[in-house]
Amino acid sequence: MDIWTPDATLFRIKLVDFLGDGFGGAGDTEAELAFTPATGQWVTLSIPLSDFSAGGMTSFSDINQLIISAQPTGGATVYVDNVYFSVNQVASNQDVVLNDYTVYPNPSVNQWNITSSNQLIEEIAVFDLTGKMVMSNKVNSESITIDASSLRPGIYIARVTSASSVSSLKLVKE
């Protein structure tokens, strides 16, 4: 799910399952998750159903409601796009290629070098911990140098895309 808001301080998603006996029946189960969204930019939320299980939902056989709300109540504007539901792929007998990435120096003051030992890096995107993309590069190489000089000190997540996978790397800026 992608969301954009200029002013919401809290974003909530609730799933409700009627368990086949309709609203108000004995089998109703629900769970609500809350997120603090970045404002003024599109943010992608990828939420496993297991997060709703951890929130108390006990069944997913008859999901009837997806309830979206935000705070401040009655005063927040939120745009929602690209709501997807998916199921994890079952195991197969196909070969799995594990990407092996090296990041150095990490922590860094001015730059990070990222190398792959077995695949071309197609693209890299760096996000701060609010989910805001702070930079993105098309690479098509086994290595890239990321200029971190304009970034504030903190922790960043690099999303590294290759032909067969997407990996996340933790980057620390001093």
TrEMBL record:
Gene3D superfamilies cross-referenced by the UniProt entry: Galactose-binding lectin
Annotated ranges, domain Secretion system C-terminal sorting: 103-170
Origin: domain of life: Bacteria
InterPro entries: Galactose-bd-like_sf, Secre_tail
Keyword Signal: yes
Keyword entries, A-Z: Signal
Record-given protein name: Secretion system C-terminal sorting domain-containing protein
